[in-house]
Design a protein that fits this description.
Blueprint (H helix, E strand, L loop, with lengths): L6 H25 L9 H15 L6 E3 H10 L6 H12 L6 E3 H9 L5 H18 L14
Antiparallel strand pairs: 1-2
Length: about 150
Amino acid sequence: MDNRIQGGKAYGILKSHQEDKLNTINEVFLSDEQYAEVEDLAFKLDMFKKKYMEFDLNDKGDIDMMGLKRMLEKLGLAKTHLELKRMMSEVAGGPSKETISYTDFLTMMLGQRNAILKLILMFEGMTKEEERRDVGPPAPKTFSELP
């Protein structure tokens, strides 16, 4: 059998390994007493994992500057390089950090401190909830309500 795997299969294997690694980190957070009071913790961790994997562009388990840039652009919030560096530093815990680890990301999302990136992602989640509520046919109108 050929040990070289290429294309989509290699990408699928890479993402599967990455998801396993992130699931292991999620298990640590699930068993951490500090987060025992967080409502729907397992659901939130799964949601955060999917969001994190979406923007891990280097597929190394970290969100780098380009991943953060893409995340914010996708949300319609293009930022300057300096603003991106500031956000990265705030989440990763220091100006020398060049990536956001999954642990840093979860600590930010589940923590009490409101980092700029956390506020942006939470706002994006709230607007998606509102969009979902408005889906479907309009309510029926009576004859007197017609223009």
